[in-house]
Amino acid sequence: MAFSFQAVAQEKIAITEDDYSNSRVEMADVMRSEGKIYVLVGVIVLIFAGITVYVINTDRKVSKLEKLIKEDS
Predict the structure, then answer these.
(1) Orientation of helix 26-34 relative to helix 36-72, angle to 10°
(2) H helices, E strands: number in the chain
(3) 3-state secondary structure of 10
(4) What is the DSSP letter of 35?
(5) Hey, where are the domains in the chain?
(6) If DSSP codes are grouped into helix, strand and coil, which group holds residue 38?
(7) What does the pLDDT look like over 33-73, one tens digit per residue?
(8) Which positions, given as ranges, span the membrane (predicted)?
(9) In degrees rounded to 5, what are phi and psi of residue 46?
């Protein structure tokens, strides 16, 4: 098991002073310049909205079941 961890380890890359002062995120800059960042934000919002709707519907169903159990008792 220890050998497998060593086998997939990455090589160390030296960190320079320029790395600490770099405040640019190249991937986000490229996506923003091409207009794709808005697609990404839209997809994230849709996923979050879908999860929220699912949780609310599940909560309503559980509440109905709890009411039925209380009424039967």
Answers:
(1) 100
(2) 4, 0
(3) coil
(4) T
(5) 37-73
(6) helix
(7) 888 888 999 999 999 999 999 999 999 999 999 999 999 87
(8) 37-57
(9) -65, -40
